[in-house]
Description:
The structure is a homohexamer of 136-residue chains. The first copy, chain A, is of the alpha+beta class and 136 residues long. The first copy, chain A, has four helices and five strands. Chains in contact: A-B, A-C, A-D, B-E, B-F, C-D, C-F, D-E, E-F. Strand 5 of chain E pairs antiparallel with strand 1 of chain F, so a sheet runs across the interface.
Amino acid sequence: MVYLTRKAEFSASHFYHNDEFTAEENQRIFGKCNNPNGHGHNYTLEVTVKGQVDQRSGFVVDLKQLKDVMNREVIEAMDHRHLNKEVAEFRDRIPTTENLAISIWNRLKPKLQVAELHRVRVYETPDLFVDFYGEE
Amino acid sequence: MVYLTRKAEFSASHFYHNDEFTAEENQRIFGKCNNPNGHGHNYTLEVTVKGQVDQRSGFVVDLKQLKDVMNREVIEAMDHRHLNKEVAEFRDRIPTTENLAISIWNRLKPKLQVAELHRVRVYETPDLFVDFYGEE
Amino acid sequence: MVYLTRKAEFSASHFYHNDEFTAEENQRIFGKCNNPNGHGHNYTLEVTVKGQVDQRSGFVVDLKQLKDVMNREVIEAMDHRHLNKEVAEFRDRIPTTENLAISIWNRLKPKLQVAELHRVRVYETPDLFVDFYGEE
Amino acid sequence: MVYLTRKAEFSASHFYHNDEFTAEENQRIFGKCNNPNGHGHNYTLEVTVKGQVDQRSGFVVDLKQLKDVMNREVIEAMDHRHLNKEVAEFRDRIPTTENLAISIWNRLKPKLQVAELHRVRVYETPDLFVDFYGEE
Amino acid sequence: MVYLTRKAEFSASHFYHNDEFTAEENQRIFGKCNNPNGHGHNYTLEVTVKGQVDQRSGFVVDLKQLKDVMNREVIEAMDHRHLNKEVAEFRDRIPTTENLAISIWNRLKPKLQVAELHRVRVYETPDLFVDFYGEE
Amino acid sequence: MVYLTRKAEFSASHFYHNDEFTAEENQRIFGKCNNPNGHGHNYTLEVTVKGQVDQRSGFVVDLKQLKDVMNREVIEAMDHRHLNKEVAEFRDRIPTTENLAISIWNRLKPKLQVAELHRVRVYETPDLFVDFYGEE
């Protein structure tokens, strides 16, 4: 059993706002992330899959297929997008790094074959990242 | 004569659009950067100053003053902002990395004392950066 | 359940010496780290907390509170300090990276609320780091 | 119980080919990695050991011994080598990053004393890495 | 006048050998790089161009064209290749990082339009790099 | 003419103090760097040499000689040392990063042969570095 991780990057903008909060609550809880003009990030995504090594190829997963799934399900959907306005699941969920990791897990999980999804890590900045393992 | 460089980071969103271009030109020239919803980046800024080393302090510049000027003139003005909508000089200039470097030079140049501004470097992503030395 | 990690940096000096060892043992076991003048490092700290995502805020932890706790309990106590001479627990424990990770865990554990401390990682250099999960 | 990780780097070349595959299969499965002239990488190796902290030294493992074992068992055997031609276990196993991680585990496991081998991580590029924990 | 730099990566293998040297000289001068089986690297390439910012686009160079030229002239020619055996100019020149930087300059110089080539930087490892500015 | 740069790292401690300043001036000018117990850093050193490429070897400088000079003149003298107490030139000069870069230039300049010293860069942290080119 080995674990293989592939990185990719995408750029997106977002802002944090909950209609159920008062303006004062939104400001206190979200600070300058509440600015409705939005701000952006270069996100780094790490996708880890696990499985047995195929003895004939030496691979745990077809790297090209993994790259294609990551590109189609995540990069094309999110790169150079405004997460709140252009990515369906963030119309009514706040696009925090936590929710972004869960969203990416849900997008990738049904599309991966052979190897099993183990972890999704999302860096919002080099100093802040979130891991999701599919745990309830 | 020594050169001292200090890094800082900020997050912002932007998009590229020139009203004088046709829609087709905007799309061809700017590609997915033309999306009016904007997208974002973690920018890294490197500011280099040069000067003689003060024999009494061993410093070429007061680091705290340099940090304060960078924070006040650049970080506070641009971090968590939408460059097109919230930074004055980009209302009628396209906020490319090239123009961002020039803009930051113009903001810092008149505020630095003792040490002389030598170079402004702006990374849009880890793989793309622009340098400006104040050359016409 | 998600895991969120925040990085911070601090600079400190230390040396390794055990009064119960002979001079020869101190030299053999600690090598040039035994130099009583001390030497220093830029430490990088990664603090990982885990918890459920709050559905209203999208956060697993208030990032500002996490930053404040890390600053107050670790950075202010250790940054620009001599660990052997100025940090209480290292008066009679050797400030190795292993002991530093355990010490930082013990400082943070009682101060974190809502989210649970999961891991403390300390990089002494980019090529050497220690993880502590609170395991006996 | 703490976990200590040490990094090292080595440069090697390899190519992917399975004699049991047809030429077409080798090309389809391995792509440009099938080029028999080989190509190379700067590999980064991370070795993690775990154990109790020795109360007298503050160490979980003698860092010099760990470095010596890594150098002797891995770096000297693989650095500036052609993996297919010069490293025994890859004469009949494809030197993918997956197999390289398993090979390094098998080389280090019997040589480590006091501290227990926990994980071998191998980066083929900054964007692709494999972890092996000795799991069947 | 601004300077824009774009990074790219490629993997290649090589070895160092001069037929005019004796075996002993080759070994003494090139050390383990003289191994005829070759060894490899992940090279990082930085290409810097300079020019005036186009007032209408805000660009100093069309980034897509720059990327295409770098891909066609360098990456496709060198990635996953054995430099000595598969890249024409290294049949009779030693593929040191110095010569690689000069070779890449010569490949790019005649293909760049509008913006002028300013510098080619090649990293052989994160700790060793060469710059070439086209100076005799 | 090519420029070759080699990196190395060393760890040291220091503090900033000028006997000619009052206690209040030392505190105001040097802040927490004035703490007489000292604090430390992992310094990164980049040494750049320039010269013609030797047509027979493909090298601008013998890398082993360059490494040996850097080790002997800088790393052995400063690694795991207290700069104020153990490095001669800092007994009466404040070991700022500026002065450290000048000191390293003066140590290396007379020892390099064939290739000419072009630049010394010293990173005190990843966010702060100083360049010295030997300019008065």
